[in-house]
Amino acid sequence: MVNKKIEPCTTTPLSKxxxxxxxxxxxxxxxxxxxxxxxxxxxxxxxxxxxxxxxxVRAVFAIVICxxxxxxxxxxxxxxxxxxxYILPMSAMLLMxxxxxxxxxxxxxxxxxxxxxxxxxxxxxxxxxVQNRQFPGIRRIAIFAxxxxxxxxxxxxxxxxxxxxxxxxxxxxxxxxxxxIILIPKATKYATSMxxxxxxxIPVALILFCGAVLNENLQVPTAAMxxxxxxASGLLYGAAMVxxxxxxxxxxxxxxxxxxxxxxxxxxxxATMLFAEIxxxxxxxxxxxxxxxxxxxxxRSASHGT
Length: 306
Fold this sequence. Notes:
This protein is mainly α. It has 13 helices and no strands.
């Protein structure tokens, strides 16, 4: 019996032929989907749903969306052997994000939790540099530093009464996000994003659901508005989990991590428009700082062909 040679995946739009400009657009789109999903979560929590069930529902939506795509468009349900080694680590990273972020919100101010979570682009820079044995140039370090400082100005975190549990949870989520982004190009070399999403989200959904049953008594929304918000948040999250694979493959882990800084900025701007939360001048300065860093990173990478 002759073993069939597994070729690199070429049937997915995640091929290396995609343009950098398209990748930038996909990164911003992905950040927008995640941002609006977060805004819906505010409504969900008001109607009695806990963070574990919320995370489980969002994982289920990612599974269903990808399963429908494969059912109608074709594709593999099981991950090809060369990419299987990445599934368990990526599931663990997703679990760190899905559990760490909501937990951080319970113990520390939301602004501080968001700022700590968005340390993950800096982690990507460090991890990527160590992997490639290349020390990042002063310009790239300045880009990331400017983006992070800008986020600090936007959120203006309050450091009073900070509990260590919240800090650890936020940093855990940031670490998970950093490694997840790093693994995407490796995992998608032989498998499509749809296949990977299904196989990584199944254990996440099961673990969070079991946690919700044990710790939250499986509290469902207490009103129709809560159900609508939960479904909308899950749908947006599922779509974002599909787009993120396309985005990272087109732009690379380092640049996409800079562009994903748009997510908290979009949340801030939408909250201002929808909930009349007027920002302070220093916060608008922070927004301009991060946007400038993203634009500079995109232009510089495009000119270098990365």
